[in-house]
Design a protein that fits this description.
The protein is mainly beta. It has one helix at 66-70, and strands spanning 26-28, 40-44, 49-53. It has a domain at 26-70. The chain contains one helix and three strands, in the order βββα. Strand 2 and strand 3 (49-53) form a beta hairpin.
């Protein structure tokens, strides 16, 4: 019979620092056209920023779009 282990706990003092290898190309929301922009970037508006990434190949290839944002 297979034994199942359950771990319960809390790790204190974990901090995260976000960073990118290169800056994402920014485009204003008013001029954003998904067919004209790069395959990944940053959409800026007066209220917020939104990172975007497009599928550039058929989904069956498993080329995940977020990898381009996080590994850029």
């Amino acid at each position: 019979m297979t034994e199942v282990l359950h771990f319960v706990g809390f790790i204190k003092g974990v901090t995260y620092r976000t960073s990118l290898a290169e800056n994402l190309k920014e485009i204003d929301l008013d001029f954003f056209d998904v067919n004209q922009v790069n395959t990944y970037g940053l959409i800026k508006s007066p209220l917020t920023e939104i990172a975007y990434s497009q599928w550039v190949s058929p989904k069956r290839t498993r080329s995940y779009p977020f990898a381009r944002i996080y590994n850029a």
